[in-house]
Target: ABC transporter permease
Amino acid sequence: MAKTLSDIKRSLDGNLGKRLTLKANGGRRKTIERSGILAETYPSVFVIQLDQDENSFERVSYSYADILTETVELTFDDTASSVAY
Model:
């Protein structure tokens, strides 16, 4: 796992356009699980384009700090290897 916010951003920049599964803490012992594509990265946040057949909204964004604090977990659906953040 990456140690700094810049390491996390750099590794996500290398995975732009790839399919992923997102697990996020929804509060009160709820876990939200969604799938989509890593669409964009910005200096403070990243954007995931969600699959429309499963979700009522198109996009969701999280900060790199969410990955660092393990509030959000990303698993890329790469056929060669599964990479988790």
Observations:
- The chain has a mean pLDDT of 88.
- The chain has two helices and six strands.
- The chain has one domain: 3-74.
